[in-house]
């Protein structure tokens, strides 16, 4: 049976934004991330990271380094009993005019096909317009987190266009998804 998924941005959403992170030692989970991912996974959501990594296309770091960064991320999450097995990367620059760079939904559709995801019951969470722009690909819509660059973009027309929920952090996003929110005033439709 198709599974609902949470499509998660990486930088500024799960880990501290480092501006072209290229050192595994610089991987640092944002507050509330492990427990929020655990709650979502326990509720039956598949966790899938979708990330634009143009630092590869720009020659700032290699795919080997990217692998090391992801191993470190998975290690840190594993220590908190969170298992993420699925991630999809666009390594291109905007100039490459590729098909897979967010906000294009190519990687979401690829994930849905490979992992048997029910897109109608799925969400996207991220901190940039390119993340929120994926909202039309999923039935439940987008959540902009104020971590990373999110606080800079919440009033951006490219974000407002998709009418995302706005959450201070991943915990508040999880509350919205799970219906466990106790403070609706903190979530702006
Ligand atoms: Mg981001
Ligand atoms: Zn691409």
Q: Features of this protein?
A:
single chain, 189 residues, alpha/beta, Rossmann fold, six-stranded parallel beta sheet, 33% helix, globular, disordered C terminus, binds magnesium ion, binds zinc ion
Describe the protein's architecture and organization:
It is built from eight helices and six strands, in the order E-H-E-H-H-E-H-E-H-E-H-H-E-H. It has a six-stranded parallel β-sheet with strand order 3-2-1-4-5-6, sandwiched between helices. The radius of gyration is 15 Å and the shape is globular. It has 189 residues and is of the alpha/beta class. The chain has one domain (5-186): HAD superfamily/HAD-like (Rossmann fold), CATH 3.40.50.1000. Helix 1 links the parallel strand 1 (5-8) and strand 2. Magnesium ion binds next to loops.
The CATH architecture assignment turns out to be 3-Layer(aba) Sandwich
Instruction: Identify the strand order in the major beta sheet.
Output: 3-2-1-4-5-6
As a percent range, the share of helical residues equals: 25-40%
Structural class: alpha/beta
**Ligand species:** magnesium ion, zinc ion
Summarize the structure.
The chain has 189 residues and is of the alpha/beta class.
Task: Outline the fold blueprint.
Elements: E1 5-8, H1 33-42, E2 46-52, H2 54-57, H3 63-79, E3 86-90, H4 106-115, E4 123-126, H5 129-132, E5 142-145, H6 150-153, H7 157-160, E6 165-167, H8 170-178
Parallel strand pairs: 1-2, 1-4, 2-3, 4-5, 5-6
């Amino acid at each position: 049976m198709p599974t609902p998924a949470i499509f998660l941005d990486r930088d500024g959403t799960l880990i501290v934004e480092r501006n072209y992170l290229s050192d595994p030692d610089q991987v640092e989970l944002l507050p509330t991330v492990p427990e929020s991912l655990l709650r979502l996974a326990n509720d039956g959501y598949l966790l899938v990271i979708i990330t634009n990594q143009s630092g590869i296309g720009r020659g700032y770091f290699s795919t080997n380094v990217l692998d090391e960064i992801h191993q470190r991320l998975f290690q840190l999450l594993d220590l908190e009993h969170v298992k993420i097995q699925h991630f999809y990367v666009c390594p291109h620059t905007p100039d490459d005019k590729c098909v897979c760079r967010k906000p294009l939904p190519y990687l979401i559709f690829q994930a849905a096909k490979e992992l048997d995801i029910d897109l109608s019951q799925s969400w996207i969470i991220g901190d940039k317009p390119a993340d929120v722009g994926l909202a039309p690909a999923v039935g439940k819509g987008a959540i902009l987190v104020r971590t990373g660059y999110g606080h800079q973009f919440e009033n951006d027309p490219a974000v407002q266009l998709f009418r995302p929920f706005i959450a201070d952090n991943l915990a508040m996003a999880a509350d919205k998804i799970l219906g466990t929110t106790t403070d609706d005033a903190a979530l702006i439709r």
